[in-house]
Amino acid sequence: SPAILWFREDFRLADNAALSAAARDGAPVLCITILEPEPQQGAAHDWWRDGAIRALDAALQEKDGRLHVLRGKAEDLVPALAKACNASAVHWNRRYDPTGRAIDTAIKTQLKSTGTEAYSFPGALLHEPWTIRTQADKPFQVFTPFWRTARKLGDPRPPLSAPDTLKFASFPKTDQFHSLTPEEFNLLPTSPDWAAGFRETWEPGEKAAHEHLALFVEDTLRGYSEERDYPAAEACSRLSPYLRFGHVTPAQLWHAVMQADASAQNKDKFLAELGWREFAWSILFEQANVATRSLRPEFDALPWRTDPKGLKAWQSGRTGYPLVDAGMRELWHTGWMHNRIRMVVASFLVKHLLIDWREGERWFADTLVDHDPASNPMNWQWNAGTGVDAAPFFRIMNPILQSEKFDAEGEYIRRWVPELQRVPASMIHAPWAADQEALKACGVVLGRTYPHPIIEHKLARERALSVWKSFRGN
Ligand code: FAD
């Protein structure tokens, strides 16, 4: 009897422990994935998921198999499908969020009660979250000791190669459910089609992930630690959506980086970034509500402003601060934003506009192709100062200085804010402070072709600090 292989956010054939185990048993495998109603995913995530499903289906078709797509509650579908095809076992790679874990535990219990085995495997993280704990057996609240402890565990397991041979089971003939066609799973935008920039920028799938990774370790990694903060330099890996959808595993990245011809400093810096991803997951593992509650609960009483116009200006990249606007437009166009700029725009929303970090978290959740339920809220809370091991609230990023420092020539700004195409570096970081006639000669009239700043930096800073002081006084 067949084994069911349930793909979740692990759309790959290599280093897939569940797949290798299913294939090792020699049983025919029925490959499925399920579009579950909860949690609802963002539109950008769905765009990538469509590509991830198609790419994996194509890879399985090359081996004469298929990926079957179902829609519904996994608690209902998996046991029913196991029964319908008389499966001997169901295999999956673990998920680590409390809600997903609860669903998986319930399914496991149900399967076992009907005599179907359920096997789960590690894969999405370098180390299982419960293996990295303080001496008092508590989860870490601070990154540095977390990462020191994780590194003491040594290298993660060596990645598995894709199984050489796979036998496939056919989908059971039943009225209960059917394998959806791409039109039926309907994950792409229709009208308007906002995904043209995504298609230009990305190719989802395992093959593309490994091409990206190869380029990164052969080239970009060598300058990573010095250049990663410069958004125009293309000096980071851009692997985040590939990791998010499990096209590539952190263990594969770890070993590829360790074997690369690059300095220890570059390698350590990159691995530490993977460490932040692990840290974020270790927090979500313990706490389901990281996206809705401040990890430092006293911050939930902060008097955030309700400012729909400000929020809209931020979302659409029309704040009048060129670096902020460039980031928000890069996000809208490509579904991705450079890390340094994510920090700048997050600080701007939370400190300059005093808008609740959850508004920003939600916008990112809808627009990022790499939206990650652990990393996104953790980073928002870090920047807002409401999280564990976070930058303090009173540390307010200056978007003009950030611009001068990290995009000195204005190259990144010009890439994403075409209205400022002809503005030289001397005026581009703060166009309102420039000689307006000179600006006009570059085709820019503030308030007409490009917005005035929606708030003055100094005022915004004073307002944030005064809210912070009175709030602390409570
Ligand atoms: P690289 O610099 O090449 O890093 C390699 C990998 O390390 C990344 O792919 C990512 O998996 C991990 N990583 C790097 N920095 C971080 C970090 N600060 N926190 C957690 N993991 C990290 N990252 C997401 O993957 N999904 C998100 O939803 C997300 N939301 C963010 C929201 C805000 C407000 C901020 C400031 C950061 C957010 N990040 C998020 C972290 C980071 O910006 C991205 O991981 C990074 O920009 C992805 O680009 P890269 O793959 O080139 O990164």
From TrEMBL:
Binds 1 FAD per subunit. The lineage of its organism: Bacteria, Pseudomonadati, Pseudomonadota, Alphaproteobacteria, Acetobacterales. Its cofactor is FAD; (6R)-5,10-methylene-5,6,7,8-tetrahydrofolate. SUPFAM superfamilies: Cryptochrome/photolyase FAD-binding domain (SSF48173), Cryptochrome/photolyase, N-terminal domain (SSF52425). It holds the Pfam family DNA_photolyase. It catalyses: cyclobutadipyrimidine (in DNA) = 2 pyrimidine residues (in DNA). This is Deoxyribodipyrimidine photo-lyase. Residues 1-126 form the Photolyase/cryptochrome alpha/beta domain. It comes from Acetobacter aceti NBRC 14818. GO terms for molecular function: deoxyribodipyrimidine photo-lyase activity; DNA binding; FAD binding. FAD binds at residues 224, 270, 370-372. Gene3D superfamilies: 1.25.40.80, DNA Cyclobutane Dipyrimidine Photolyase, subunit A, domain 3, HUPs. InterPro entries: Crypto/Photolyase_FAD-like_sf, Crypto/Photolyase_N_sf, Cryptochr/Photolyase_FAD-bd, Cryptochrome/DNA_photolyase_1, DNA_photolyase_1_CS_C, DNA_photolyase_N, Rossmann-like_a/b/a_fold. It is an enzyme of class 4 (lyase). PROSITE patterns: DNA_PHOTOLYASES_1_1, DNA_PHOTOLYASES_1_2, PHR_CRY_ALPHA_BETA. Belongs to the DNA photolyase family. GO terms for biological process: photoreactive repair; response to light stimulus. The record marks 304, 357, 380 as: Electron transfer via tryptophanyl radical. Keywords: Chromophore, FAD, Flavoprotein. Its EC number is 4.1.99.3.
